[in-house]
Amino acid sequence: MELELADLILPLVHTFTIARRSETDARSVVFTLRHDGLEGLGESAPSERYGENLASIKTFFANHTLASDDPYALDALLAGLPPAARCGLDVALHDLIGKDLDRPLWRLLGVDPARTPVTSFTVGIDAPDVMLAKLDAIREHPIVKVKLGFEGDVEVLEAMRARYTGTLRVDANEAWTPEEAVRKLAVLARLDVEFCEQPIPAGTPERLRFIRERSRVPIVTDEDSKDATDLLALAGCVDGVNVKLVKCGGIRGALAMIHTARALGLKIMLGCMVESAILATAAAHLSPLVDWADLDGPFLTARDPFAGITYDRGKIVVPDGPGLGVARV
User: Fold this and answer.
1) Among candidate residues 25, 17, 58, the one with its CA nearest the CA of residue 304
2) Which of 14, 79, 119, 286 could serve as a FRET partner for 245 with CA atoms 20 to 30 Å apart?
């Protein structure tokens, strides 16, 4: 097999800001894996928050020889790889296998593509009037997720609820203290917020339990739930976990998280970074297995050289082409 990596820069529709950073474009690594006349596409959109970046992925593969020339030898090929690096290769391998078998990935996974959820559409942090304008632009979308973690964030959400009747979710990206979270969630409960994602810094499940016991708003982790090994400590402390392919190492890692979460009685959200249609589509194939989806990366980018996942009034539509069903455009 021949592996090629290439940088991808995706300009964004708006500057995207969360509690700890802002970006005007999204950057990822595209994996092209060639074997026996076929081409598998993968992608990784690493986050410095988890200790990997574009340079570390490229350096890793510059010094790493693939363990097998057989794309079906997944255990051998993926063993020991750092999560974000593993994600890109894992997705490319699944795309290649699907193309070799001439079957879409959802069919290989045995899932029902009619059972995909409706994705949320994220509104990033900005000046209050800008956040309200962004909401007005997408007010027909049935689910909106709002980034919080700034001075006056609850007041902005109150103004949003006054003009939006759909489902609201919030994500504080580790910005609050436990006591602050309890106070703010008491207000958000009155605004009928569906759940709050990662209210406090990761690493203290007992503090998440403290919040959950004092709030009517369900708590979902993100930064606290990187892979399946994190989930046992979260059982009983939160209501659900956010699964992202780039955090857990790709499709195989995501399946491990999904099955572990189900065994522990945790609900599951399938999330994404700001990424191209390659990675968003790979996640979409898994979406019939989860409760909630936040696969809105394609909504946030101004131009994408790949096409795959589409939406029907927010409901995820998975392509039926072989492998991921992603095409270059």
Assistant:
1) 25
2) 14
Query: What is the signed CA dihedral for 117, 123, 301, 138, rounded to 10 degrees?
Result: 70
Q: What phi and psi, each to the nearest 5 degrees, are found at residue 156?
A: -65, -40
Nearest CA to 147 out of 318, 274, 27 is that of 274
- Does the pLDDT at position 16 exceed 90? no
255-265 residue pLDDT tens: 999 999 999 99
Residues 322, 102 contacting (CB under 8 angstroms) = yes
The structure's pTM equals 0.95
Phi-psi region of 265 (alpha: psi -120 to 50; beta: other; left: phi over 0): left
- Give the DSSP letter string of 153-198: HHHHHHHHHHH--SEEEEE-TT-S-HHHHHHHHHHHHHTTEEEEE-
pLDDT-based confidence at residue 289 (cuts at 50, 70, 90): very high
Dig out the tokens for 89 from the structure: 């290769």
Q: Are 328 and 306 in contact (CB under 8 A)?
A: yes
pLDDT, average across residues 122-135: 96
Q: How many CB atoms sit inside 10 A of residue 294's CB? A: 24
Domains of the chain: 2-102 (3.30.390.10), 108-328 (3.20.20.120)
pLDDT given for residue 21 in this prediction: 75
Nearest to 197 by CA among 217, 167, 226, 177: 217
